[in-house]
What does this fold into?
Amino acid sequence: MSLKIYNTMSREKEEFVPRDAGKVAMYVCGPTVYNYIHIGNGRTYLSFDIIYRYLKYRGYDVKYVRNLTDVDDKIINKANEEGVPAEEIAERYSIAFNEDTEQLGLAKPTIVPKATEHVREMIEIIEGLIDKGLAYVVEGDVYFEVTKFADYGKLAHRSLEDMRAGERVEIDPRKHHPMDFALWKSAKPGEPSWDSPWGKGRPGWHIECTAMSLKYLGQGFDIHGGGRDLIFPHHENELAQTEGYTGKQFVRYWMHGGMVNIGEEKMAKSLGNIILVRDLLKEHSPNVLRLLALGTHYRSPIDFSPEKLREAESAYDRFLNARRRIAQALESPAVTRFPELVEEAGRLQRAIQETKSKFIESMDDDFNSAAALASLFELVREINMFIESNEQEMTMIAKDALSTADGMLTELAGVMGLNLMLPEETAGLEANLPAEIYDLAAEVLGLSLDNKAKSELLDELLVRRNEARKQKDWATADMIRNSLAGMGIEIEDTPLGSRWKLSRD
Ligand SMILES: [Zn+2]
It folds into this structure.
């Protein structure tokens, strides 16, 4: 069985063969930080979070890069509206983005590069493009000349003529072709700017992603992702610049996520129907929002509505209720019966195995999360049936099977980033964790963290320890492990990442 991915370039599902065996290099276009993210953006990042987690579950060593575009026309416009420096806008919404994505439960990418920290690399690529005759300079601006790149339009599957007809392009007499796009823009007074061979200016949006993806992932990396709306012009332009510059394939698999509509309408500022992630999170658990996303294939559109949210709420409750019933069943005294037949729990045991293989089969089929989720609900049904028919006499064998089912349910949900922990388990856990965690977190993470849960701080300490290990900073890594061990908390390193548990458990 192998993983298949729908490639926007071929418009087909293809078998996934990474550039380097066992490794995945993935780049997803991050936000332009001039506003809070809406649920359309949130869905795209959630989709790639699920993909990232699943690739790791499948044993790949994944390097995931998601950039921050912190210099752009939109940021400058917003700054002018508010009468503040562009840097202030970028800083404010970068912080907001981190808060929103953390609250949404997104795993941190391996690298989160900022465009403003890579301008030198961008200038180098632009110079290379000019040298190759693919770009030209007009009064301090630099443009990419689309007619010089023979394959322009191959990702969007459109010819230059179609594009001209499809896009409202202003006629600019300084450009050789209306579709030529800016690699470098000369600075107006008061705008953020950098020195360049063409005078003071700033990079265009597309060149930012070329520079950052090449720097961290190299040529011909595996997966480049984003929302469908980025196929043209953003990704088409990234591709033309990069392949024009390197002369080699830029990306092996192009992945694009579906949009979110409100009801059946497009979500747009002009329609006044934009829903922000942070507003939704005030009233709904991140798990419910994730379930809503998981219920639809990542490439299909979602028509967002209050009913969809309610469905997701009740789906989440079904999971939690099943886990609660299991916990109760496990607490009831076991009856002894002679002979105790293994076959009593045979149907549930088979359902557990089937769930796992259906789950993997579905996710391997271009990350079909809706089908994967359906297999988990199939297991929930089996669990409920099993409890009902065994309620009166729960044998040890029955309890074992239930406990295995519970483990499988939480494991596979966890692969998709769903947390099925019951509120009472979380509360019990928090109460059992030692208060020294606060001191250690303050020392290692260097912040005042009293408003966070101890279990959350533990997760952050594990992330910090893994970073230290990657940088071969054994002193810090060992210090964290030993300090936790001193508090009775054990770290387990698994292929899925590190976990902690109370050693007295
Ligand atoms: Zn990009």
